[in-house]
């Protein structure tokens, strides 16, 4: 099985980067091949410009070379793991821009080429689980990522796992367990 691990953090020494590396290492140890995509290190531009805007009159539109390259990486993966910090109770702009540009019409939806893939959204939240639950932020993230992105794009085997209290102490064990316990690593 081939996995795409997407790391989303501007600092290479962040908990997100360490968690992404941990996920990659776990998948490799389980016998998977892994494409490691660090959006910041690779200089991905999250800005949606006209070349990559969906064309509602043409579902076969050819997108920019950068986006086509990322589409090929997503298409090659059986498993997609996106590791990101939860900022303002959602995806960071870099991750949202990656979805906006790459998960585009004619590739990810209308029609989708992503059916049969598995996906793990692994979010690192600085706050406690109780705060997220009290206001429903955990449910909002699950609905947005699992249903609004993954399922909308044909990925029905998707999981959102949030690791809480990441500012209190490193949670690498929780991250290892999340990658191990989901159907993603099976």
Automatic annotation (TrEMBL):
Keywords: Oxidoreductase. One of its GO terms (cellular component) is cytosol. Transmembrane segments: none annotated. Its EC number is 1.6.99.-. This is NAD(P)H oxidoreductase. InterPro entries: Flavodoxin_fold, Flavoprotein-like_sf, NAD(P)H_dehydrogenase_qn. Belongs to the NAD(P)H dehydrogenase (quinone) family. The lineage of its organism: Bacteria, Bacillati, Actinomycetota, Actinomycetes, Mycobacteriales. It comes from the Bacteria. GO terms for molecular function: NAD(P)H dehydrogenase (quinone) activity. Residues 1-169 form the Flavodoxin-like fold domain.
